[in-house]
Fold each of these.
Amino acid sequence: MKRSSSLKLAFMGASALALTACDQPQDVAIFESVEQCSQQDGFDSNSCQQNMDLARQEHIAVAPKYSVIEDCEADFGAASCEIAPVQTQSGGSVFMPLMMGYMMGNMLSGNSRVATQPLYRSKDDPSNFRTADNQKVAGKTGLSTVPGKVAKAPTVKTSTLRRGGFGASAPSLRSFGG
Amino acid sequence: MERISIEERDDWRSQAEEVGFDFHTFDGEPYWDETACYRFSLAQIENDIEDPSADIENLCFEVVERAINDSEVMARLAIPETFWDYIRNSWLNREKNLYGRLDFSYDGKGPAKLLEYNADTPTALYESAVFQWLWLEQAMEREIIPAGCDQFNSLHEALVEAFKTADIEGPFHLASCQGSPEDEGTVRYLEECARQAGLNTKFLYIEDIGIDPDGHFTDLDDMGIATLFKLYPWEWIMNDEFGKSVPNSGLRFIEPGWKAILSNKGLMPLLWEMFEGHPNLLPSFFEDDPRISQLGDLSMVPGLTSGYVRKPLFSREGSNVQIIRPGQRPISVEGPYGSEGAIIQALHPLPVFEGNHTVIGSWLVASKPCGIGIREDDSPITKDSSRFLPHVIY
C-alpha cells in the first residue's frame, strides 16, 4: 500500500486536547554557598563547587533580563540586581537579578533528573527560593522534595527588545509557498 | 496516466470546513477540484516518479556539497556573503530537513522532467496529505471509483515519524506570515503532525517574532525560541532587518539554512552542469552564463531550439516566469521578482489533459519520496490560481 494506513486529525478544528506530562516529585538540594553545601551529610566539596559553577553559568543564560534596572528591582527588590555580561543589540546595558542560591540533585538519592540551576528570591515572596521560570522551590536550604516540573531545566526566559524584524520582505501574494 | 471525469461528493465543502481546509475555494473559484481525478499505474508511480525523486534528492545533496565549498557558486545563487558560513555550517552540522516538493512535467510516457524544487517553503501539503487521502477512502466507499484503489500518499505518517526523530527539545515554534490562510493552513497542519509526534508546539506569526538583548529570538510570551519551523523563504529572512542576527542566534530553523541552495532556481543550471544528460533533468543555464549570453539568440543554443523558459532565481507561484517559443508571442506572468538574476531552462511544456495543463508535485519528507499532489492550470504556467486534483493508483 502506497498510502497512510490511518489518518487522524486530533487537534485541528476540534478543541485542543490537554497533554498531561508525567510529573514525578524529585529530591533536590538547595544551597546558598559551596560551604553550606559541603557541610551537608553525603555532599563533597568538589561536587558542590562543580554544581555551583554550573549554576553560575546557567544564571547568565536563564536569569530574567531587563533593559532598565528599575524594572529589575521592581521584581526582585532594591540592590538585588546586577549588570548582565551581555549587551543589547545597540550596545546598551542589560540587568538581571542576583543569584541567591542554587539547586542540585540530592547526592544521597543519586537523582540525575534534577537540572542544576540558579535560584532567586522575588520582592513579593522573599521567603522562598524561586527558579528562573518563577516556580516556587522551597523556603529553606538543604534537602527538599519538589514537583518534577520545578526540577527541570529552566527555559530561557528573556525580555524582548523589538518585534517586527521579520516579514518585511513578503510581497502581498496569496501564498508564496509554491 | 489518464484524467477521469468523476462525480463530486456532494458534501465535500462542509467536510473541508470541518477539518480545517478553509482555503478550498479562492475568489469564488474552486481550488480543490474533484470533478476529475488522475489515474496512474503502480509502475508509473514507482518507476517514473518515486525512484527519480529519490535519485534527484541525492543529486541535490551533491550540489549542496559543491556550493558550500565554492564561493563563486554561492554568489551566483545571490546568497548574501554574510550567510555563506552559516549555510555551510548548517550542512556540516547535518541540520535535519523536514520536507520539500519536486515539480515534474510528466505525461505518463517519457521520463518525468524536473521543473523546479520547492525545497524551502512548499505549500499544498495539507490538501495532498489529508484531503486527498480522505477523498480516496470516501470515493471508494461511495463507489465513485473502484474498491481496492490506492494512492501514493503516506505523507501524514511520514511527517509524524519525521517529527518523532527530529531531536526537537522543549517547545517547538511554528510560524507563517499574517494574512495568508493558505500558508497558515499548511503550518497548522504541520503543527498537528508535530503534536501527534508528542512535541509541545506554539504557533506564532513571523511578524510577531521578537529579539532579546542577547540576540536570541523570542515569542509573544518573551520565551526564547529554540527551534522554529518557518513557512517564510530563506532569501527573505536574509534580507529582513532581523536577518543579520540569525547566524548568532542559536536558533535551529526548519527548513535548515542549506535549503537556501536548493530552493533557488539556480539549482537547475547547477544540476545540469554536474549531471548533464540525466533523463529527469532539462538543459538549464544561468542567464548571465557567457556560453549563452554571447549568442544573442537563445534559440540557437543546443537544447533550447524548441523554446525556453526564463525564471527569476527567487520566483514563486509562477510569478515573473516567461515562456519563449520560436515564432510565437512570449507567455508571461507578472510579479514582484526578478532583480536577483534569472535562469534559462529548456521548454518542456506541461502535458495538456482536456485543456488543462498538469503539473505533478512529488513530496519528500525527511528526503524520502512519500506522495504526490496534482495541480492543473488553464495556462502553461502553473500559478496560484491553479486547482488541486486528487489521484488514484489502479
Note: The two ends of chain B are 10 Å apart (CA to CA).
Amino acid sequence: MKITLKVWRQKNGKDSGRFETYQLNHVSEDMSFLEMFDVLNEQLITENKEPVAFDHDCREGICGMCSMYINGRAHGPWEGTTTCQLHMRAFNDGDTIVVEPWRSAAFPVLKDLMVDRSAFDRIMAVGGFVSVNTGNAVDANSTLIPKEDADNAFSAAACIGCGACVATCKNSSAMLFVSAKVSQLALLPQGQVERKDRVRKMVAQMDAEGFGSCTNTGACEAECPKGISIANIARMNREYLGAAILPGN
Amino acid sequence: MSKISQLFNSSIGQKVIMSLTGLFLCSFLVIHMIGNLQLFKGDSGMAFNTYAVFMTTNPLIKTTSYLLYASILYHAVKGLWLAARNRKARPVKYAMSQANANSHWTSRNMGVLGTMILVFIVVHMSDFWAEYKFGHIPYTKYTTNILTGELTSEAMPTDYVQSKKLEEYMVGTDTKVVIVKDLYKEVSEEFQNIGLVLLYLVAMFAVSFHLYHGFQSAFQSLGIAYDNYKGIIKAIGIWGFAILIPAGFAAMPLYFYFFKS
C-alpha cells in the first residue's frame, strides 16, 4: 500500500506547530497503525530527520497510551479500538491520512503527537481510591455483591484512561472518564467509605483542570475504545447531587 | 465552601439548573399549546380571548409567568455562557473532525438553535404579549343565545375602553354578552404577513431540533436516565416535544394565513 501521511509536528509546548506530509510506499495492510509509524520513523532517521514523537506502551489495547486523532476520529475509524489495535487494512491504497494529537486545554501538547494527560492523574489522586484495612486479607467471598452491580462496576473499570472521550467531545469534557472511575468505586461495598467525598473532590478537580462541561452529545461513548457507557455519567450526576444535598460525608 | 455552593459552582450543578429550567420551559410549552388550540375553535375567538384574560389576571398564573421569564433568561444567558466556556476548553481546533460519526448534529448545535429560539421569543412577545399589555387592542362584543347556541360578534369602536378586562352580563334570560380585548383578531391579522409566518415556521424547526436533544439530555443531566425509563423518555422527547408540539404551533400561523384571510 502507498500511504500519504499528514502528521502534526510540534517541537514543544511553546512551538505553534504545523502539518508535515510524508510518503510511505511499502505499507503492509497487516501492520498496525503504530507499526506504520515505526516504519515512518526509521525512514526519517535514515534521512537524518527528527522522528515523530508519539505515545505507546503495551500495543495490546490495554494501556491507553496511544493517543492519536486519525482522520478526524479518536483512535481512527474502527469502533472499540485503540490506535495500536487499528490495522492498515482499515485504509485503502493511495489514501491520505491526517494524524493530530488530542486537542484540549487540559491536555497540552508536549511534542508532536504526545500530550500531557497528568490532569487525569490529579483527578485520580484526589479520590480515585478506596480505604482498606491493613492486616490479614479478608476472605473475598465474605462480602456479597449483587451480580448486576459487580457487572456494572467491572464495565466501568474497563476504562484505560486513554483520553479519547476528552479528545472527541466538542467541549473537551472529561465526564466519561471521571464517571467511569466514580461508578466503579461507588457500586462496590469497598468504595462506600469515601463515596460522597470522592465524587465531590473528583468533580471539583475535573473542573479545576479546565475540562469543558458535558452536553450529552454521546460522542465519548461512541468513540471509547472500551465501550464505557454514558449511563455512568448519569450515575455520577446522581452521585454528585446526592453528595451535595444529602447529609453526611 | 459549603456543599450546596460547591454544587452550584460545579459543571454538574450548572447543568442541573439548565435541565430544570429547560424542563420547566417544556412544561410551559404544553400549557401554551393546549390553551392556544382554542384559536381553532371557530367561535371568532371568544374562548381564546376569555382565556387570554384569565392568563393575564389569575394571580397564580401571573406569579408563574414571572418565574417563566426568569427561567427563559437564565436558561439563555447561562447556556450561552457555558457554550463560550466549553469552546475555550479546546483552544486549538482539529484540522479534520468527523463529528457526524459519533453524535447527532442537534446535540452539537444547542447554542445556535437556542439563540434562534431566543430571537423568536423576543419577536413573539413584542408582537403579542407587549401589544396586549401595553398596546391598543380594540374590544369585541360577543353575543350568545344560550338556548340556540347562536353566536354573533361585533367589533366595538376603536376608542372604546372598559375598566375590567372582561365584561360579562346577561340580557334577559337567554342572551349572554361578553366584551373582551380581541387578541384573536390581532393574531389573525399578524399572520397575514408571509414574512412573519415564515419566521414562525423556522422558529418551530429550531424548537423541534432543540428539544430533540434537549428533553432527553435534561434527564441525563439530572441522573435519572435509568435504562428502565430511557425508552419512554426518548419517545416523549421525540414524538411529543420534537414533533407534536412544534407541529401544533406551526399549524397556527398556517391556519390563519391560508384559511382566515
Note: Chain B touches chain A through 45 residues (CB under 8 Å).
